[in-house]
Structures
1.
Amino acid sequence: MKRLIYIFLMIIVARTAMAVRVSNAGVTVGADCPGSYLPMLRGKRVALYSNHTGRLDDGRHTLDLLVDSGIDVRYIFSPEHGFRGTADAGEHVDGGIDPATGIPVLSLYGKGKRAAMTCVDSVDVVVTDIQDVGLRFYTYYCTMIELMNKALEGDREFIVLDRPNPVSAMGVDGPVLDMKYRSGVGMLPVPVLHGMTLGELASMASGEGWLSGGRRSRLTVIPCLGYTRSARYELPVAPSPNLPCIHAVYLYPSTCYFEATPVSLGRGTDSPFEVYGHPSMRPADGFSFTPRSRTGARKPPLLNRTCRGVDLRGVSADTLIAGGVDLTYLIDAYDRMGRPEKFLTSFFELLIGNDRIRRMIAEGRSAAEIKATWTDEAALFDRQRQPYLLYPLK
């Protein structure tokens, strides 16, 4: 019988003492509650969807805990950037063997993705433990949804070991995805900032009939303990090569759109998503940067070219959180480059989620005016998601 299982646990966990960021004090991620999910896995064939972010409080990877506990892990599924999290954005990643355990690593972001997905047919349960960043166009949740759909085909169990959303304090903001623009950077009809954890998002996808055939997943969510949606959760490790710090993550809802322009957003520098510029751009205060080849950005846009532009590293976290999805930077770059006719590529619609925003930018509408056009749909989504929220606001 297909069912959606919500597990609300009040568990006293003996936690290994280690240095943690103050803002994370008292938060226990789902993976650090093994007593709630290991019994569900014993005697079953398991596939784990994870990457380098699947760490436990004691420093081990969740995979190591599963193997050390005698769980039969048959496959490791990895997302964009690979299992170790070092591949470039959009780079096709090959599979391999995890050297520590000898378990096959199957890439779900490469040429062998379709073949890798068929391995779900040979397991009993798929476990997800990965750190998302709470944006509709971040690909980790998209891969999770694809796995949920595949698991549905064979009526497989699906377990999400939940982790906090580091931008949940930014609330719900941005236009809801028009599903004619559904893609690998947008799988569900949610706003850019949906304010949900992966567990909550998986629950909503199942409950709202967004999965294949409108069917419900055999879903279990192992929730975080001590987490609130207003918390400013500091990520223990960088979720991907070009989001190296929480400040970059706070800017991500507003600067990712440069991916659909000729403008560099700092890939190939120490500050991706925190700067933007172009060789022909009128600079702000003489600021410039030069993208170089490096791990995670081997061939960044405008490689080895001096880009004049704007430095956002001094913008406070308070300002970024309050701003939510802010198109000010995109419009500023458009103006500084003389409002070229071919400024935005078709990728922009996939990122922003509809075909209205491009026209408003071309018409000279301000960021505030554009934001006002999606306020109602964001508010409607906020009400729609309420039954699936697992964590209090404060």
Note: The two ends are 35 Å apart (CA to CA).
2.
Amino acid sequence: MMDRREEFREKITALRKSTGMNRKEFCEYFGIPYDTEICWENGRRTAPDYFLRLLEYYIRMEKLAEGKK
């Protein structure tokens, strides 16, 4: 079974990749510190569960996911 950090790591990476942005672009667009994003994608830190839901919603509503621009 996957632990919370691994699950968060996979979800945040998938969300970023769905936008077609690299880490720097993603961080600049969403106002996320670059070091924080690195820690998330490397599984060293997580954010609250609601953060992923909000980020996913925003990406969907702004049509940032690739193929929907």
Note: DSSP finds four helices and no strands in the chain.
